[in-house]
Automatic annotation (TrEMBL), chain A:
Gene3D superfamilies: YVTN repeat-like/Quinoprotein amine dehydrogenase. WD repeats lie at residues 51-92, 139-179, 180-221, 222-263, 308-340. It comes from Stegastes partitus (bicolor damselfish). The keyword Repeat applies. Keywords: Repeat, Transducer, WD repeat. The gene is LOC103375278. One of its GO terms (biological process) is signal transduction. This is Guanine nucleotide-binding protein G(I)/G(S)/G(T) subunit beta-3-like. It comes from the Eukaryota. Belongs to the WD repeat G protein beta family.
UniProtKB/TrEMBL annotation, chain B:
It comes from Stegastes partitus. One of its GO terms (cellular component) is neuron projection. Residues 1-14 have a biased composition (Low complexity). This is Regulator of G-protein signaling 6-like. The keyword Acyltransferase does not apply. One of its GO terms (biological process) is intracellular signal transduction.
């Protein structure tokens, strides 16, 4: 197949050129640039609240934009909306399928979504007329498990799936508006940019991709991890991306330099990263690991400056509230903890 | 009580035991020819009465070179599946920690009338971890040690709970045969054989714990029909075990128990063999067949994980795919890469600017409601009077000003005072449009055109002709992003022009500079309130003229 050979050669040559272009701008490293900055002092956060009520592993949680309410999903088949301050359960929503893997809170606070092994994304209306929380839509089209979902607004939601694609849905009609294909492995996680124009996805092909929502295309791909990327997030300024992987490291990639800036790793950390969240300034990176702990990193110096040890099983999800006041962790031990 | 000549023997014995464990997998239960150890007299009850020193046992095998433990690991070095990566790292440590010269002191301890073979104290383990991994904090060493213990790579000899204690508690290392990297998923039949055989051996140390007795009872009910078979297998195992020497059996029994403590943990303990269901399907199992711990032929498998629809396996490498890839790569190449130094500077600058707004780094004022249980911080945020710190943030970027409802409001008022609010109102309208339900988008898009862009529009905005043309085209098939270009253009305009003036304006500067005490009483008017009130009252009043002159 001479033509295939030629095409592949062309692709490889382009890849080499891109690598060269990236190298050409490596006039410094983040480490060098941050050399004169002192490491942030030891960060000691304490558990302020424990949210009890789930009966099985918690797989996901998401803060509401009001920084007080949050939603969690557990394999006990429940979606619970918590008032994190009083620890009261505002809503306890029974799910059709107990194998739930993700949940999301709409920015408006009106809707929540979840999904999992049922390959669907179910949208629930929290502000229904009669006060009952009901399924509003079931978005079905994925041929693999639903790993993550995030609302753009009450009208649109983006999902990532084990079928290696991400999809933008119109909630009202329940239809797929755009399919973002390109990953070569299960998509595990996604995050939307602060301006809602882009989103990033991390997958089991060890890469992260930046997608343009409007153009419906992949703009950039970032590699370097040696195993599945389980968690992904934007740096608060929207110009950089943080990933967490089963290779026990987190990486910071810059969108404008189109490459990795720094890796967060330690020989004493042997277990994979399950979840991550930057603090509001971006200076701190909180990452949850399979070894039951959350490690807090100084994002500029790549040094560990704190540990949150309070869960009795894997930390599966983590989130920092929008006002930055609190961090919430969810675990396979069935508890959520609020820290600051 | 280290006995130097013993240590070598212990290591060698353990070595041979491990070899045997591996061989057992292949051999038939009846085949005992592979046993290397001299047969000892049958053991009865504990404690030992004789003074059989292990060194008196004649080794019938030639001294084997101590193979590196690493070769015992069954992790394929190319296996990158999630758990295997962690196992590989742990196994490296576990191999090094048992090293004859550089590892922990593993010894036989004499206690009362018995000997405890091949043990090490918890403290020794923690100390070694701290030294080998260069850890200063003992708590961290404990954490790593506990992790390794929880996976069953070493275990307390007198407890079913797999944890590590930093004291004189004795621990023993697990045989590589039983390592988690072997992808064990032992069936209940194996577990039943194990529990059954324990009841046959008359030793206090092998007595079943309560939960094990319950498990056994449950299994007896479940396997009622084939219990005879299980019983026979258990008997066969007992027979094999009896042929080993005392020390060896103590070690093997404990290793076997530790294996089951991992796969059938004490109720209340974490089951470390649980896997993330998203990864289950992809776990590589080097042994296609589910193997039995005791060499039984494969039984029907009882899967506990849910049935997953096999997901689409991504196709690779059709001609179309490669062509798409080339297109994508070309686009990437066209994109200009920014210098690392600039990018790093920008990141650092951002964090420095926002660190005072990061509650994890800088204590918020008056206090963090979570720690002080005093909600006044949130009350202030919600009130109509933004704090100085918050007002300062509006000056960071137009984005920040617009993100904060109070900032947005003030900016709008300022623009209204200049009679130039249409830009911001257009921008806000387009933001709204993007969030609307699909059905309403078309109409709203037309409304926006009518209000801001049509001939003689009431709030006419200034677009360059190019953007105007593009937008007009888009409107033929109106969608959420019809105004994207126009919006970007207007945003840039606001940023460079009106936003800059806003920051220099009196209304903003007054707020920024004013020393404000938190308003506790109702009815007290602030200067901001007074301002908005006066602007709201009249746009053509004399006061306004005064304001315009001053800004």
């Amino acid at each position: 197949m001479g033509e295939m050979e030629q095409l592949r050669k062309e692709a490889d040559s382009l890849k080499d050129q891109i690598t060269a272009a990236r190298k050409a701008v490596q006039d410094s490293t983040l480490q060098e640039a941050a050399a004169s900055i002192t490491v942030v002092g030891r960060v000691q956060l304490k558990t302020r609240k424990t949210l009890r009520g789930h009966l099985a592993k918690i797989y996901a949680m998401h803060w509401s934009t009001d920084s007080k309410l949050c939603v969690s999903a557990s394999q006990d088949g429940k979606l619970i909306v918590w008032d994190s301050i009083t620890t009261n359960k505002v809503n306890a929503i029974p799910l059709k399928s107990s194998w739930v893997m993700t949940c999301a809170y709409a920015p408006s606070g009106n809707l929540v979504a979840c999904g999992g092994l049922d390959n669907m994304c179910s949208i629930y209306n929290l502000k229904g007329k009669d006060g009952n929380v009901k399924v509003m839509r079931e978005l079905a089209a994925h041929t693999g498990y639903l790993s993550c979902c995030r609302f753009l607004s009450d009208s649109e939601i983006i999902t990532s799936s084990g079928d290696c694609t991400c999809v933008l849905w119109d909630i009202e009609t329940g239809t797929q508006k755009t399919v973002f294909a390109g990953h070569q492995g299960d998509c595990m996680s996604l995050a939307v940019s602060p301006d809602f124009k882009f989103f990033i996805s991390g997958a089991c092909d060890f890469t992260a991709k930046l997608w343009d929502i409007r153009e419906a295309s992949c703009r950039q791909t970032f590699g370097g991890h040696e195993s599945d990327i389980n968690a992904i997030g934007f740096f608060p300024n929207g110009n950089a991306v943080i990933t967490g992987s089963d290779d026990a490291t987190c990486k910071l990639y810059d969108l404008r330099a189109d490459q990795e800036l720094i890796t967060y790793q330690d020989s004493g950390i042997m277990c994979g990263v399950t979840s991550l969240a930057p603090s509001v300034s971006g200076r701190l990176l909180l990452a949850g690991y399979d070894d039951f702990n959350v490690n807090i990193w100084d994002a500029l110096k790549a040094e560990r400056v704190g540990v949150l040890a309070g869960h009795d099983n894997r930390v599966s999800c983590i989130g920092v509230s929008s006002d930055g006041m609190a961090c919430c962790t969810g675990s396979w031990d069935s508890f959520l903890k609020i820290w600051n | 009580m280290a006995e130097a000549p013993q240590q070598q023997q212990q290591q060698q014995q353990q070595q041979e035991e491990e070899d045997e464990e591996q061989q057992q997998q292949q051999q038939e239960e009846e085949d005992e020819e592979q046993q290397q150890q001299q047969l000892n007299t049958e053991d009865t009850t504990e404690p030992d009465e004789g003074s059989e020193e292990p060194k008196e046992i004649v080794q019938t095998t030639p001294t084997r070179p101590l193979l590196s433990m690493r070769s015992m690991s069954s992790v394929d070095p190319d296996d990158d599946s999630p758990n295997m990566i962690a196992y590989r790292k742990i196994e490296e440590i576990v191999t090094r920690i048992q090293d004859e010269t550089d590892g922990v002191p593993i010894r036989t301890v004499k206690s009362f009338m018995t000997k405890i073979p091949s043990v090490v104290t918890g403290t020794d383990i923690v100390q070694w971890l701290m030294k080998d991994l260069s850890i200063e904090d003992p708590a961290e060493a404990m954490h790593i040690g506990s992790l390794i213990a929880a996976q069953g790579y070493f275990f307390p000899i007198s407890d079913h709970v797999l944890s590590l204690k930093d004291d004189g508690t004795f621990y023993r290392f697990q045989a590589p045969y039983f390592w988690p990297s072997n992808c064990w998923e032992p069936e209940n039949t194996d577990y039943a054989i194990y529990l059954c055989k324990r009841t046959m051996q008359n030793k206090t140390r092998l007595e079943l714990a309560d939960y094990e007795a319950e498990n056994l009872a449950r299994l007896q009910r479940a396997f009622a029909r084939k219990w005879e078979f299980i019983y026979m297998q258990a008997e066969a195992q007992v027979k094999i075990d009896r042929k080993r020497d005392k020390s060896e059996r103590k070690i093997l029994d404990s290793q076997e128990r530790a294996f089951w403590d991992v796969h059938r943990p004490v109720p209340g303990c974490v089951n470390t063999t649980e896997m993330d269901i998203r990864k289950c399907r992809r776990m590589k199992n080097p042994h296609r067949v589910k193997k039995s711990v005791y060499g039984l032929a494969e039984e029907g498998t009882q899967s506990q994980s849910p049935v997953q629809t096999p997901s689409h396996h991504c196709r690779k490498g059709t001609k179309e795919d490669v062509e798409k890839e080339i297109l994508f790569l070309n686009q990437q190449l066209d994109r200009h890469c920014m210098k690392m130094s600039k990018v790093a500077e920008s990141l650092i600058a951002y964090t420095e600017q926002y660190m005072e707004y990061d509650p994890f780094v800088t204590a918020p004022e008056p206090s963090n409601p979570w720690t002080s249980d005093d909600p006044s911080f949130w009350d202030l945020e919600a009130s109509k009077e933004p704090s100085q710190q918050r007002v300062k943030k509006w000056g960071f970027s137009l984005e920040e000003a617009l993100k904060d409802p109070a900032g947005q409001e003030l900016f709008l008022k300022f623009l209204e005072s200049e009679f130039s609010s249409e830009n911001l109102r257009f921008w806000l309208a387009v933001q709204d449009l993007k969030r609307m339900p699909q059905q309403e988008v078309g109409q709203r898009a037309q409304d926006i055109w009518a209000e801001f862009l049509a001939e003689g529009a009431p709030s006419s905005i200034n677009l360059d002709s190019h953007s105007y043309e593009r937008t007009s085209q888009n409107l033929k098939d109106p969608g959420r992003y019809s105004y994207e270009d126009a919006q970007d253009h207007i945003y840039k305009l606001m940023k460079s022009d009106s936003y800059a003036r806003f920051l220099r304006s009196n209304v903003y500067q007054d707020l920024l500079m004013a020393r404000k005490k938190p308003e506790m009483e109702q009815g007290r008017r602030t200067s901001l309130e007074k301002f908005t009130r006066s602007v709201g009252k009249s746009l053509t009043g004399k006061r306004l003229t005064g304001l315009m002159q001053s800004s």
